[in-house]
């Protein structure tokens, strides 16, 4: 089970790095490659959601079935210490699950915003190009008309 937690931690770290790099301004070619790479990874990374739900169920099951002492005087210190360590690990793992899910959601949102921005930039470039051709054509027509008149 420890390997799953290591994998989830690495996945959350990878999502965080992609979140930092994706919206950063930089070279257009590199930005396009990172954008397409991130969009390609979104579907396989969606598997983090059921994995996190499974791990949350595992944490809940461990919490519900943990041995507890009826009276504090009956518990030896080693059992109490082991129980406290288990609770701390569960809290750490729940935090890791929350961050992995939050990073995935943020990455999904940022990737879609980057796609929308690219589409709007392309549309703006086409409109500017069309407008500049229309203005240049209008100036030519006006100058020809003035020369004739």
From TrEMBL:
One GO cellular component term noted in the UniProt record for this chain: endoplasmic reticulum membrane
Topology with respect to the bilayer: Multi-pass membrane protein
Location, primary (coarse class): endoplasmic reticulum
Transmembrane segments: 6-29, 41-61, 94-115
UniProt-listed GO biological process terms: endoplasmic reticulum to Golgi vesicle-mediated transport; intracellular protein transport; protein localization to endoplasmic reticulum exit site
Keyword field: Endoplasmic reticulum, ER-Golgi transport, Membrane, Protein transport, Transmembrane, Transmembrane helix, Transport
Source organism, top-level taxon: Eukaryota
Record keyword Protein transport present: yes
Transmembrane found in the keyword field: yes
Localization annotation: Endoplasmic reticulum membrane
Function: May play a role in anterograde transport of membrane proteins from the endoplasmic reticulum to the Golgi.
Recorded family membership: Belongs to the BCAP29/BCAP31 family.
The name this protein goes by in its record: Endoplasmic reticulum transmembrane protein
